[in-house]
Every structure is written in C-alpha cells, then in structure tokens.
C-alpha cells in the first residue's frame, strides 16, 4: 500500500515533473524517524480496520436497498486483492461505478462508506485514467461532495475523499465554479488547522487540484497559509514535502511566480537551510528554479542568505542529476544578482539573512563613511533587523558579535546615531550583552556601549 500511494497528475510540464509525481507519497515513511511515521502508522491501522470490519451487506439486500446480484458483487469484489479488483473493475467499469454511486448515496452508516472510498481510492491510485469512468455518469461529484460534512467518517476517509474529489475536478472537462469553491474552501479550512491529520487532508486535495493549470491562480491566494505551514512544521519532513510540492506546482504559473509573496520565498530558503533529506532538497531547489528571475524572487533569495546555503550544497557530492542542474541554475542566478549589487546592498542582504560573519565590509571605515546615511532607508530598517538579530534565540555568537560591532559603527559615523539607537530601544538590549557568556560577544558589547557614551571617538582606542 505504501508503494502505491503516490501522485496522480495527468499533465506534467516536464519529464522530471512526471518522475517527481511518481515519487510523491502522502504517507511515505522512507528515512523518517518514528515521530514522523505517526501519521503513516495511523493510516495503516485505519485501512486494516476498514477491511476487517464486518458489514451486513445481506441486511441491505433484505431491506430492498440492493439486489442480490449487487450484494454479491460488492462482497466478492471487496474480498479480492488489488490486482484482481483492478482487472475486475476494468472489465465492468460502468457497473462498478454505478454500484459505488448507489452505495455512497443510499447508505448512511460509516463503515460501508469508508470501505467504498478505500476501494475507489485504490483503483484510482493504481490507474488514474479510471477516473474517466466515474466522470461518465451524471453528477459524478455529488456522492462524494455530500460526504464533506461527515466528520464521523474519520480523517483517513477524509484523506481518500480529498484525493478522489481533487482528481475528478482536475480531469473534468467543465468544472462548475460552486463545486470548485466548495472543495477549495473545505481544503483551506483543513490547512488552517494545527492538526497534522487535517494538514494531510488539505494538502492532498491541493496537490490533486494543482495538476490542472487553471486552478493554480485561484490557489495562489493561499500562499500565505502554505508559508505558515512551512515555518510551523519545520521538524516534519513529510508535511514539509507535501507543502513545498504544492508550492512547486503553483510556481509553474508565470504570473503567480512573478508575484510570489516574499514570505513564501523566504520560507523556502529557510527550509533549504535546514533540510537534510535529498528528496526535500530536490523539491525546494526545483521550486526556486521556477521562481528565479521572475519578479523580485532572486533578490529576495539573496537577501534571505541563499548564497551561503548554495555554497555549502555545492561542496557536497550529489548523485541526483536534478539537484546538480538546479544548483547550477540557482548559483548562476545568485552570482548575477550579487554582481549587480552595491556594497551596501550586499551588506543589507547579509543582515537580512540573519547570519553575520566577519567579512571585510564590517571593518571597513570607507564602507561606513560612504554608506552610513543609507541606513536611514525604510525608517532605519537595517538597524531594525540588527535589533531583531540581538533578540533572536537562534543566532550564533559570531552573529551577535558582528551585530554589536555594526551598531557601534553606526553610532560612530552617523551624526544622529545615538538618538536612533535610543529611540528604537536598542541601547538596553546592547547593555544586556555586556554580561554574555561568550568573551567575544561581551567585548563587542562593551565597545558598543562605549561608543554610545563617548563623543570623541578618536580617543576610544588610545
């Protein structure tokens, strides 16, 4: 089952997209720790429970809901293995589609509905083209859409439902706006949940919908939600992969890529910074390749510190040709942007990344003399970022030391430096670092405080 749960997209833009689609697994456990396997284990237990459930089909036949032939058909079909069911379905497609439709429409009990959804999902995963048989009947979405407000079906059945409806919508010749809006809203509600199960349900639906290019513009309105998932699920590689896969599909739309939210681009770079699995690195790079050179994306990537990340990745040996090619594309894009940047823009980019090093620019008097008034841009935004760095729980000691040095240099060279630092509340923050446990950080905090207190800088080091 694990091997069979994969993407079911019908019109990949490239051969590589087809390969990635085949790789995608909603419940993949490869290279995951036990905590990240929790959702997969729950899905297997739910599936096993559904097939072990004793359903009184004969009772439905006796009540006149189904004919004896229909009862025998569903009982024997459910007993077969996947290969047998697939062959049987292909031989009598309309007969089975009609029966599935009747069961989902007639029966209200949870167990039969869960079983039929599982049977339908199985055959569609195995061969997505079978969706055409479902689309051949009148109102093909109706039996599925009416189940969206049945929470008692459980999260696993909802995941199957999300995948089936999304696939049918992606393949329909004509999609009614109200059907798309209802399903989109249902999936978006799941994405706004903090539940990992709900996230899987919502992301599964989005992945199915986004295989249809005209849906991508509509779903682009949810970029902010997807970015928040990236930031909040940093430790869950499966959720991260599904989320970025969704962003990757959205990024194929040119207009969407040009207007990609800065928050989303930065979230992708942050994910790349911490990603350790090849599968996750590959999908992030593929998304960034789609975004580079469009709108302000390349500049935002540089400001988010992608240069250092790419350098680290380029120093590794990769057996994946896609990763190698994408690294080359991103490297060339970053190099071009950096070459066009002034020294202050490069400095601002480094500060915006949140990680600072002792590069020459920090200790260059010429830099501070020539650029100190550019710190006034966007209401002293760069100084504000330095403040954010000093109040961060994640920056390293070198970053703290460089930030304290730069604040001191700003005070030293800008005529209103002390007033600016005092106004934005940085003075108290800097003073707290005078008792820092790291000697280098403590030294630069002391020097910075001296610069805040002393007017005649030339006597400072004498």
Task: Report on the architecture of this protein.
The chain is built from 28 helices and no strands. Mean pLDDT is 87; it is low at 1-36 and 458-462. Helix content is 68%, strand content 0%. The chain has helices at residues 15-23, 38-52, 57-62, 68-79, 82-91, 93-106, 110-126, 131-135, 142-145, 155-171, 177-191, 196-209, 216-219, 223-232, 237-250, 254-258, 262-274, 278-291, 297-303, 306-314, 321-340, 343-353, 365-371, 377-390, 397-413, 417-423, 426-432, 439-453. It has 462 residues and is mainly α. It is elongated, with a radius of gyration of 28 Å. α14 (223-232) packs parallel to α17 (262-274) and α24 packs antiparallel against α25.
Which features does this protein show?
elongated, 462 residues, disordered N terminus, 28 helices, mainly alpha
């Amino acid at each position: 089952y694990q091997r069979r749960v994969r993407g079911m997209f019908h019109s990949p833009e490239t051969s590589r997209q087809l390969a990635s689609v085949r790789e995608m697994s909603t419940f993949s456990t490869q290279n995951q720790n036990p905590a990240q396997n929790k959702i997969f284990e729950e899905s297997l237990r739910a599936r096993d429970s559904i097939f072990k459930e004793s359903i009184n089909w004969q009772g439905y036949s006796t009540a006149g809901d189904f004919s004896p032939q229909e009862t025998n058909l569903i009982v024997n079909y459910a007993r077969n293995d996947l290969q047998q069911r697939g062959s049987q379905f292909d031989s009598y497609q309309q007969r089975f589609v009609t029966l599935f439709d009747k069961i989902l429409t007639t029966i209200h009990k949870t167990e039969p509905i869960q079983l039929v959804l599982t049977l339908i999902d199985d055959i569609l995963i195995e061969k997505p083209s079978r969706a055409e048989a479902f689309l051949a009947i009148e109102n093909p979405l109706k039996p599925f859409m009416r189940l969206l407000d049945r929470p008692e079906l459980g999260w696993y059945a909802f995941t199957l439902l999300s995948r089936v409806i999304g696939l049918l919508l992606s393949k329909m010749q004509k999609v009614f706006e109200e059907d798309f809006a209802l399903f989109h809203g249902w999936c978006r509600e799941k994405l706004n949940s903090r539940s990992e199960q709900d996230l899987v349900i919502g992301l599964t639906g989005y992945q199915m919908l986004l295989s249809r290019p005209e849906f991508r513009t509509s779903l682009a309105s949810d970029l902010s939600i997807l970015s928040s998932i990236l930031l909040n699920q940093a430790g869950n590689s499966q959720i991260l992969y599904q989320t970025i896969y969704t962003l990757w599909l959205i990024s194929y739309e040119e207009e969407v890529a040009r207007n990609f939210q800065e928050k989303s681009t930065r979230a992708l770079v942050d994910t790349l910074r911490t990603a350790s699995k090849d599968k996750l690195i590959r999908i992030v790079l593929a998304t960034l390749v789609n975004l580079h050179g469009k709108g302000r994306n390349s500049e935002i990537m540089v400001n988010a510190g992608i240069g250092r990340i790419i350098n680290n990745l380029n120093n590794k040996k990769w057996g994946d040709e896609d990763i190698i090619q994408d690294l080359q594309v991103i490297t060339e894009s970053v190099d071009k942007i950096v070459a066009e940047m002034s020294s202050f823009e490069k400095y601002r980019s480094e500060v915006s990344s949140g990680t600072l090093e002792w590069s020459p620019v920090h200790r260059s008097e010429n830099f501070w003399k020539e650029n100190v008034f550019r710190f006034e841009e966007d209401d002293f935004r760069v100084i504000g970022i330095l403040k954010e760095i000093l109040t961060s729980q994640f920056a390293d000691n070198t970053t703290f030391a460089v930030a304290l040095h730069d604040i001191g240099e700003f005070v030293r060279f800008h005529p209103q430096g002390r007033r600016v630092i005092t106004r934005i509340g940085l003075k108290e923050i800097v003073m707290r670092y005078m008792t820092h446990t790291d000697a280098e950080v403590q030294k630069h905090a002391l020097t910075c405080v001296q610069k805040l207190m002393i007017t005649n800088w030339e006597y400072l080091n004498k």
